[in-house]
Specification:
Blueprint (H helix, E strand, L loop, with lengths): L1 H25 L3 H55 L2 E6 L4 E6 L2 H24 L5 H17 L1
Antiparallel strand pairs: 1-2
Amino acid sequence: MRSLLKILWTIFITFILSGLIIILIVVPNNEIFKSFSDFASIFLSSATILLVIISLLKQNIENSKSKIENHFFNMLNYHNDNVKSLCITDIKTKTKTKEKVEGRRAFLIFRSQLSRLLDIVEKINSELELNLDNDKIIDIAYICYQKTNML
C-alpha cells in the first residue's frame, strides 16, 4: 500500500513538473496558448483526481490502523474485566476454613490447588506403583482440578 502511494506521488509530481514546463514554453506564444487551454484543463482535472485518490488511500490506511488499535485496547479491557470478575473459594486444609478470593489473586489459588493435586496424584502413583509418566500425572491432576472447581 505504501509503495502504491509512492508511485502515485511520483506520478503527481511528474504531472506538475511537465505541466510547468509546457506552460513556460507555450505561454509566450498566445495563439498556441489558446489551443493549449483545453489540454491544461484536462491536465488540472486529472491532477485533482490523482490527489483525491492519494488522500483516500491515506485515509484508508489511517482508518485501518485506528481500527486495529481500538480492537487491541478493547480486548485488553475485556480481559481486565474478566480477571476482575473471577471469584473462587479457597479451602484452607489446615484450618478447614473457606475464604472467598476475587480478581488476580484467584490465579494464585488456582496454582496452589493444582500444585496440591499434583502432589496427591504423584503420591498415589508411587504408593500404588502405577508407573504413570509425568504427562499422565498432570492430566489426572488437571481433570481432578476441573471437577473440584465445577462443584
